[in-house]
Amino acid sequence: MIHGLTGTPNEMKFLATHLRRNGYSVLCPRLAWHGEPLYILKRLKWQQLYQSVKEALLKIPADQAVFAGGLSMGALLALLLAEEFPDRISGVTCFSPTLFYDGWNTPWTRHLLLPLAYYTPFRYFAYHKEEPPYGIKNERVRQKVHQYYQKATLSDSSKATEYGYPYIPGTLFYELRKVVKFLEKKLSCIQTPVQLVQAYEDDMTSIKNSQFIYSRIGSRQKEIVYLYNSYHVITADQERDEAAQKMLEFFERIRSSGGGLETDCKKEESNCLI
Q1: I need a labelling partner for 51 at 20 to 30 A (CA). Which of 71, 73, 179, 223 fits?
Q2: Structural domains in the chain plus CATH codes
Q3: What distance in Å separates the CA atoms of residue 4 and residue 101, rounded to the nearest whole number?
Q4: Could you tell me which residues come within 8 angstroms of residue 161 by beta carbon, excluding any fewer than 6 positions away?
Q5: Nearest to 167 by CA among 180, 155, 179
Q6: This prediction's pTM
Q7: Nearest to residue 74, comparing CAs of 207, 226, 233, 202?
Q8: pLDDT for the residue 62
Q9: What is the average pLDDT across 65-73?
């Protein structure tokens, strides 16, 4: 279970508990450098993020079936695992996959920041502060996050391991962009069964993100599940029970079918190389 960029494994805690109750062993790795002060986190490269989840996978015995789930950018990392290790990853569930920021609450300032973060040295100095609703529709959970975020400063990351980072460095938008560009070239090579779970009213990333992946991925076994009472962080929001159950049912269908993997994408092809 892979959390999102500037997030925390707590985002995946409910899903992990649901899986354990149904007989699964679960790993929730903390992404590279997450929990460190922002001045350290801002130097992070996307390859280091991917390496941290790859190392978690390689800790699992090779004879065990593995399913991957990820939230937001964590969903993209899960797909990259499926592309590089088609014989290891039996299925992937992507929660709110983030290819582009186009949700209903995406401020105009972010659209201004992103080109600067992508193409100019401004990315090394720019930060975007998260604003309500923080991807959470549940008012009780949102209020807990708000109490921390509204008082947070750039120099204080003391609760980042619990609530994630209130500020996102411009450099990480740049790294996310590079992940997206890299993944786009791999989607047609991914044959692993893929489930996409998306809030219809996602405040950060619209349903076009899941539809984009669905229309381009090489998987023959694929589906989109829409939720109608949640925002972006569906793994911890109003419909987390439904999200967890849909994921479990998807994994169980794959197990009952004996894996369901399609492996006709040749790893030696140049566009399939990691």
Answers
A1: 223
A2: 9-255 (3.40.50.1820)
A3: 14
A4: 8, 30, 34, 35
A5: 155
A6: 0.91
A7: 233
A8: 93
A9: 98
What percent of the chain clears pLDDT 90, i.e. is strictly above it?
Answer: 79
86 CB neighbour count, 10 Å cutoff? 19
Is residue 88 classed exposed, middle or buried when 0-12, 13-18 and 19+ CB atoms within 10 A define those classes? middle
Q: Is 31 exposed, middle or buried (0-12, 13-18, 19+ CB in 10 A)?
A: buried
Asked if 238 and 12 count as a contact pair (C-beta separation under 8 A), the reply is no
Interatomic CA distance for residues 183 and 191, integer angstroms = 14
Q: Is the dihedral of CA 52, 58, 59, 64 positive or negative?
A: positive
Separation between Cα atoms, residue 172 and residue 212, nearest integer Å? 22
**What sections of the chain are H helices per DSSP?**
13-21, 38-41, 46-58, 73-84, 108-119, 139-149, 160-163, 170-184, 208-216, 240-256
What is the rounded CA–CA span in Å between residue 91 and residue 79?
Answer: 9
Tokens found for residue 48? 């280091």
Cα–Cα distance for residue pair 5/48, rounded to 1 Å: 12
The answer, yes or no, to whether residue 236 has pLDDT greater than 80, is yes
CB within 8 A of 130, min separation 6: which ones?
149, 166, 167, 168
**Is pLDDT larger for residue 29 or for residue 117?**
29
Distance CA 274, CA 64 (A): 23
